[in-house]
Design brief:
The chain has helices at about 30-55, 85-105, 155-165, and strands at about 5-10, 10, 15, 20, 70-75, 75-80, 115, 130, 135, 145, 150. The chain is α+β, with helices and mostly antiparallel strands. Helix 1 packs across helix 2. It is globular and about 60 Å long.
Length: about 160
Amino acid sequence: MLLAGTRARVRVNGFHTRDFSVASGVAQGSPLSPILYVVAAQPLAARMRALQRQGAVGGITLPGGSLAPPSHQHADDTSLHLRGLGDVSVAWRRGVLQWCAASGSRASAAKTRILLLGSAADGHSDGFVHEGSRVSVVARTEPVRHLGIMLAPGEAGVRARAATF
């Protein structure tokens, strides 16, 4: 509603195009952008917390014994922190895809990666496609870039971080 009726022009080689209607999105640098993103993304975080509270998805236990939040969001990147592969199916179907349907957003399984750590990685050294979500699970030796930092378990992680820094 805040952006209804927005129009724009493009400047190319010093010339402006005719104005046109902007059907979706927020202009880069717009002061509305951060607040609109928070308003749109907050329901996904709330849904993930509800699924964790209901026991529908297992959480990661922190050293003090409490559960880690099931998701973190930074700009338009979302990380889900789940106990195992069974939780991924539930989180994808009952969290991410429902949020997409409600918000008009799209999640791309092709651009999403699952990184298994700890006991969840036992018996999974090669990469494969997770059946419940169609998301790729990376091999133990393949690093994943998250917010500009290369992550991987064990020695692969040490090498990836050294190459980054």
